[in-house]
Amino acid sequence: MQVIATVAEMAAARASVPGGVGLVPTMGFLHEGHLSLVERARRDNEALVVSIFVNPAQFAPSEDLDRYPRDMDRDLELLARERADVVFVPTAEEMYPPGFDDWVDLQGPLVDRLEGASRPGFFRGVCTVVARLFRIVQPDRAYFGQKDAQQLRVIRQMVRDLALPVEIVPMPIVREPDGLAMSSRNAYLSPDQRENAIALSRALDEARQMVQDGVRDADRIRSRAQAILDETEGVSVDYISVADEQTLHELDVVDRPALLLLAARVGATRLIDNTILVPPGVAVSPLLADLLE
Ligand code: PAF
């Protein structure tokens, strides 16, 4: 496994690979969710590149860039076990060299709402770094988790709008046995907060059950999720959305594949989670079927 820190060496390594290349972009502190992407990318491609870069451009000044969890030695050990060919670990200066001033700043409702509204500049930072990684690594396929459902859809839109020659492969959410979605930020939670955080996945489970039981009124689903989170100590809701699964337009009636998306603070830690809601009898694409819980 090669560990590469410069853009020039990464580009040279890419040029020497004849077959299909899979890229798993990460910010490190790897967990089972990341490893599910890595394993799939390993199976699908002749060569596997994993990037580890805590991207300053996607953190607002008030956010947790400085204390974002990092453990490069452990990450490299895990990736060696997964038989990664290259781990790309650029510095901020490599990714944003002096004078860098070209940003990928998508417009429109998909980027303005939810995470885009709560974290101004977040998608500009994500799209810029991901576009730059695509340019440097030139992957045939890139792998993203459904856990960051809006990010996944924004990246798909970027690839479509900019005609980037890469296939985006979505992967299902990986959860702890008690339902908490895997996230590097779970490391911030105290034991009590960790317990309270299960309320997010409980709200999602209940919403899925409501839809199975015939509830179509999106407001009833939002209200029930709000009630579950409100009654849990130390949890404060940022947003609850029931939206069209593809466009993320807010819905009045769940009459098609939809997403329930949650963002909440558990203590000081902001967590996001989501689930796919499919009314019985409504058809789903094979790609979406693979993401169902
Ligand atoms: O999802 C993440 O870990 C990051 O947003 C990504 C896609 C690696 C870009 O920095």
Please give a handful of descriptors for the protein shown.
293 residues; alpha/beta; Rossmann fold; Pantoate--beta-alanine Ligase, Chain: A,domain 2; 2 domains; three-stranded antiparallel sheet; binds pantoate
Please, could you describe this protein's structure?
With about 290 residues, this protein is of the alpha/beta class. It has two domains: about 1-170, 3-Layer(aba) Sandwich (Rossmann fold); about 190-280, Pantoate--beta-alanine Ligase, Chain: A,domain 2, CATH 3.30.1300. Helix content is about 40%, strand content about 20%. The strands form two sheets. It has a six-stranded parallel beta sheet, with helices on both faces. Helix 8 (about 150-160) links the parallel strand 5 (about 140-145) and strand 6. The model has no long low-confidence stretch (mean pLDDT about 95). Pantoate binds next to strand 2 and helix 7.
Number of domains: 2
Largest sheet, spatial ordering of strands: 1-4-3-2-5-6
Mean pLDDT: 97
**Sheet of most strands:** 6 strands, parallel
Task: Name the helix and strand elements from N-terminus to C-terminus, one letter apiece.
Answer: EHEHEHEHHHHEHEHHHEEEH
Query: What is the 3D shape?
Result: globular
Structural class: alpha/beta
Rg over CA atoms? 19 Å
List the helices and strands and how they pair.
Blueprint lengths: L1 E3 L2 H9 L5 E6 L5 H13 L2 E6 L19 H10 L4 E3 L3 H4 L13 H4 L2 H4 L3 H16 L3 E5 L3 H13 L5 E5 L19 H6 L1 H15 L5 H13 L4 E10 L13 E9 L2 E9 L8 H4 L4
Parallel strand pairs: 1-4, 2-3, 2-5, 3-4, 5-6
Antiparallel strand pairs: 7-8, 8-9
The chain binds pantoate.
